[in-house]
Structure formats: C-alpha cells, structure tokens
Write a structure and sequence with these properties.
The protein has six helices and no strands. The chain is mainly alpha-helical. It has a single domain, classed as Ferritin, core subunit, four-helix bundle (Ferritin). The chain starts with 6 loop residues before the first helix and ends with a helix.
C-alpha cells in the first residue's frame, strides 16, 4: 500500500519520473473507462464514464504541460526507477486482475475503484514529499483530490448495482 511508501523510496524518484509515471497512469485510467464504456448498457453509467474519461484526459494534459515546462527538451517516457520497487503501490495491472473485454461492468467498476484509490494515495504521498516545487506539489494534491472524487463516484455507482 502507499502508506508503506517511505521517504527513502520517494528519494529514488526524479521529477521527470514522477510526471512520466503520472501521465502513464492517467492514460491507463482512460483505457479502463473506455473498456467499461464498450460493454455498458446503462445511460447513467455512460454519462459518468464519459465524464471520467474527459477528466483523466484533462489530468494527462496538465501533467504533460507541466512536464514540458520543466523539461522542454525532453519527451515524456518511461520512468527511470526499478518498477518492481513500486509495483505494489503504483498500479494494478489489468492482466493481473483479469480485465478483459468480456468482464462484466461490475467487475470493471471494482477494479476502477481500487485503481482510483491507489492513485489518490500515491499522488497524495508524492505531493507531501516533493522538494521545492510548489507547482508540482499543487498539481499532485489536485490529482489526489480528483482521484479520490472518482473513487467516491465509482463507489456510489457500484453500491447502486448491488
């Protein structure tokens, strides 16, 4: 869990890596919501999923913009850390959770809820630890807040389906 993410671990991350990872995470969230959208037959869920896709795209744009401000000569890419050190706290791999086109909406919502929770915790932890970069800390705090909102919206949607 993110709560086990220590300052020593965070010191392994460079700003470039944090922003690259964040952009990648937002793209993965978009893909998960697109999978839900493909199999969904509920109009109210369609509205929510479309909103979440738009918000994740907006997050990605903000991250890319900040990356370009700090690193104008570089392209967002893979983050330069040992992914195994962070895999338990940074992402839930779709293939590890059986995310497939034929999963039901409920199963995909459960995965999305967990991903949003972990994303919120990860962004919050990073926002508290990033050094001397107010704009970055503010963006990470904003992302933590928004991912927590997504988590709550998805929880509400899922509880209405039980």
């Amino acid at each position: 869990m993110v709560k086990e993410f220590t300052e020593k671990d965070i010191s392994k991350l460079k700003l470039e890596d944090i922003l690259s990872f964040a952009a990648k995470s937002e793209i993965e969230a978009q893909h998960l919501y697109e999978k839900i959208s493909k199999i969904n037959r509920d109009a109210s869920l369609e509205t929510l999923v479309d909103r979440l896709i738009d918000e994740e795209k907006s997050h990605e744009r903000k991250i890319r913009s900040m990356f370009n401000d700090f690193f104008p000569e570089k392209e967002i890419g893979e983050f330069d850390v040992d992914k195994d050190d962070f895999s338990d706290i940074t992402e839930i791999k779709d293939e590890d959770n059986g995310v497939k086109e034929d999963n039901g909406v409920k199963a995909l919502l459960e995965i999305a809820i967990e991903k949003e929770k972990r994303a919120s915790e990860f962004y919050r932890t990073l926002s508290e630890e990033v050094d001397d970069k107010d704009a970055v800390s503010n963006l990470l705090s904003y992302l933590a807040y928004m991912e927590n909102e997504h988590h709550s919206l998805l929880q509400k949607e899922l509880s209405g389906r039980k």
